[in-house]
């Protein structure tokens, strides 16, 4: 399986696990702390979806885009449209939310950063060129010159 395809499979599995965790948090918890966790999971889900679309993008870029998308959805709540939509289509509340809260923006940032950290570590472990050490100061060995080429 090509690396991009296998990465997409892993990201799809991560997205499904994130949805399951988010639904569990929404269904069986009730405190503000768990609501914060649910918001962070929303950012993780957006991260995994965008990472699956842009498989070669660096984790920091994916985290930035995921945070921006989440923030845009949160600001959209100020219009009242998501709340009105949730009254007629209840599942819209899970996707768009209903009420703007500043703390949600922090949760999105933390969720996206956590996803980027996990993604970066897993990419390094897998030897990805977009996550592996590449500079001499990072501990990577420099490439050997071709045979017959003087070294200095």
UniProtKB/TrEMBL annotation:
The lineage of its organism: Bacteria, Bacillati, Actinomycetota, Actinomycetes, Micrococcales. This is DUF2809 domain-containing protein. Residues 1-26 form the signal peptide. The chain crosses the membrane at residues 36-55, 62-85, 105-122. Residues 125-152 are annotated as: Disordered. It comes from Leifsonia virtsii. Residues 142-152 have a biased composition (Pro residues). The keyword Nucleotide-binding does not apply. Residues 125-141 have a biased composition (Low complexity). Keywords: Membrane, Signal, Transmembrane, Transmembrane helix. InterPro entries: DUF2809, TAT_signal. It comes from the Bacteria.
């Amino acid at each position: 399986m090509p690396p991009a395809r296998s990465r997409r499979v892993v990201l799809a599995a991560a997205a499904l696990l994130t949805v399951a965790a988010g639904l569990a948090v929404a269904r069986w918890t009730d405190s503000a702390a768990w609501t914060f966790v649910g918001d962070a999971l929303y950012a993780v889900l957006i991260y995994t979806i965008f990472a699956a679309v842009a498989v070669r993008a660096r984790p920091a870029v994916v985290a930035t885009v995921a945070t921006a998308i989440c923030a845009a959805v949160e600001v959209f709540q100020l219009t009242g449209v998501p709340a009105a939509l949730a009254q007629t289509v209840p599942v819209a509340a899970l996707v768009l939310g209903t009420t703007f809260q500043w703390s949600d923006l922090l949760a999105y940032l933390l969720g996206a950063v956590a996803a980027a950290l996990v993604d970066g570590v897993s990419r390094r472990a897998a030897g990805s060129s977009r996550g592996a050490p590449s500079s001499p100061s990072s501990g990577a060995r420099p490439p050997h010159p071709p045979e017959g080429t003087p070294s200095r």
